[in-house]
């Protein structure tokens, strides 16, 4: 039994699934985020990319823990099977996401990452090296950004210093933003030229019909404290420049923070497809209520069964369902709570307690651990959260309160669902704490 605990624990490792890998495809559960006859968001987005000619830009969003990166990997896998060349960029590897961002440093970061990817993924060294040479010359001769000492560096040294500073040094990024003001038009022009060159080179070498860039992790743009309003305003301003984020011959998918939907309203109308493609939480509850959906529970159980076929040797289904409901359909919390239960059960074995299946008491302990991570809550937060839980709307009082709403999303105090239309609810772990009825599984179902 101890060996089963270890194997089960390891099988629940929280990571994205790369559907290009056969082993990961075995773990994938389809239609997790669909309800009834609703369309598959990723399938719809894939069709749009295959239908739209020329350059196109799309917005995609989803809360952390919903399987967003796995779904973007599924999009990449599906597009590759349809004769597309795809580059996946995790922007968190290239850019500090806790300080204000503007168009110029975003374009430098984005196409610097693209240059790296076309070199490693497609062997297009000339195209990649050409980007860094042109950017170096631009910053030296036009912007005259002295902090980089560009005249004394090789292109490789320049690339390493610039990327490293943009990732780890907010003060450097701020200075670059200030220095490059007034040159954004030229930078946009250079970016468009590079995008055309990359698209032509990749399609020519790969013999593919479309070149697609998927930009992930932009939903992590956030901060706390005095800079929070400035960060949110900068994100809104960046994606409000839709025309400057389109590139000829390139289809780009940008993942954006969920709070932009509340902040920018009709933002999606300015991008290809006329909407924001949103990945909501697993359909674990019936519309706008804490009533548990049997279909959603079945899908949550499938997630575990795909990863560990012998799960029933370790946990009974009713207990597993309690963990699923407590997660609110958040895959990351679901896996985390189960791993907490397994670790504690193994600890009991070491203490000499007879080893059985995971009891309800360990589920309560795992739930308390998640609750401790969310507390303490300010009284003003409790009032707002209670109102969201009662109305199932975001209930944003004023635009100045957006940093708080963003914190609710980031901390997963508030979860986003879709049953026909989008709605919100409080994380089940928090409901009772703020005076709301917790969800419960109807024995009749």
In the residues, how many domains can be counted?
Answer: 2
Question: Order of strands across the widest beta sheet?
Answer: 2-3-4-1-5
Poorly predicted ranges (pLDDT <50, ≥5 residues)?
none
Rg for CA atoms:
24 Å
By oligomeric state, this entry counts as single chain
Per DSSP, what share of the residues sits in E-state strands of 2 or more residues? 5-15%
Topology pattern, helix = H, strand = E:
HHHEHEHHHHHEHEHEHHHHHHEEH
Count of extended strands: 7
Q: What characteristic shape results from the CA principal axes?
A: globular
Q: What share of the residues lie within helices?
A: 40-55%
Terminal-residue CA separation: 31 Å
Instruction: Provide a count of the helices.
Output: 18
Mean pLDDT: 89
Key attributes of the depicted protein:
single chain, 445 residues, alpha/beta, 52% helix
3D architecture notes:
The chain has 445 residues and is α/β, with parallel strands linked by helices. The chain has two domains: 2-13 and 284-434, no CATH class; 34-279, no CATH class. 52% of the residues lie in helices and 10% in strands. A five-stranded parallel β-sheet has the order 2-3-4-1-5, sandwiched between helices. A hairpin with a 1-residue loop joins strand 6 and strand 7 (421-426). Helix 1 (2-11) runs antiparallel to helix 14 (331-350), helix 6 (125-143) crosses helix 7 and helix 13 (317-327) crosses helix 14 (331-350). The model has no long low-confidence stretch (mean pLDDT 89).
């Amino acid at each position: 039994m101890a060996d089963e605990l270890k194997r089960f624990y390891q099988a629940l490792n929280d990571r994205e699934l790369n559907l290009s890998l056969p082993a990961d495809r075995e773990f994938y559960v389809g239609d997790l985020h669909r309800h009834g006859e609703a369309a598959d968001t990723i399938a719809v987005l894939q069709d749009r990319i295959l239908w739209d000619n020329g350059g196109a830009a799309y917005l995609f969003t989803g809360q952390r823990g919903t399987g967003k990166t796995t779904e973007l990997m599924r999009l990449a896998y599906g597009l590759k099977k349809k004769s597309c060349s795809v580059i996946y960029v995790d922007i968190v590897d290239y850019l500090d996401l806790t300080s204000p961002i503007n168009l110029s440093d975003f374009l430098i970061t984005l196409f610097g990452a693209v240059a790296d990817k076309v070199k490693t993924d497609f062997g297009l060294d000339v195209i990649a090296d050409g980007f860094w040479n042109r950017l170096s010359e631009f910053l030296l001769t036009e912007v005259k950004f002295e902090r980089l000492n560009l005249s004394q560096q090789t292109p490789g040294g320049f690339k390493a210093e610039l990327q490293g500073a943009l990732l780890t040094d907010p003060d450097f990024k701020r200075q670059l933003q200030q220095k490059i003001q007034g040159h954004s038009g030229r930078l946009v022009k250079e970016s468009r030229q590079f995008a055309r060159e990359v698209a032509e080179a990749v399609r020519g070498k790969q013999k593919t019909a479309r070149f697609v860039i998927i930009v992930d992790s932009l939903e992590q743009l956030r901060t706390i404290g005095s800079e929070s309003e400035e960060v949110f305003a900068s994100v809104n301003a960046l994606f409000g420049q839709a025309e400057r984020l389109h590139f000829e011959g390139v289809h780009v998918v940008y993942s954006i923070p969920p709070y932009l939907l509340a902040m920018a309203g009709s933002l999606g109308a300015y991008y290809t497809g006329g909407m924001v493609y949103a990945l909501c939480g697993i359909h674990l509850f019936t519309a706008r209520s804490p009533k548990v959906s049997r279909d959603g529970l079945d899908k949550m159980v499938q997630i575990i069964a795909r990863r560990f076929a012998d799960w029933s040797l370790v946990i009974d289904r009713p207990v597993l369902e309690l963990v699923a409901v407590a997660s609110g359909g958040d895959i990351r919390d679901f896996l985390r709570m189960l791993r907490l239960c397994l670790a504690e059960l193994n600890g009991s074995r070491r203490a000499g307690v007879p080893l059985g299946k995971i009891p309800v008491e360990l589920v309560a302990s795992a739930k308390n651990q998640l609750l401790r991570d969310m507390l303490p809550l300010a009284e003003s937060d409790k009032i707002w959260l209670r109102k969201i839980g009662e109305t199932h709307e975001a209930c944003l009082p004023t635009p100045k309160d957006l940093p708080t709403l963003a914190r609710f999303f980031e901390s997963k105090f508030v979860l986003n669902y879709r049953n026909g239309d989008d709605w919100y609810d409080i994380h089940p772990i928090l409901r009772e704490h703020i005076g709301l009825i917790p969800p419960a599984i109807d024995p009749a179902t």
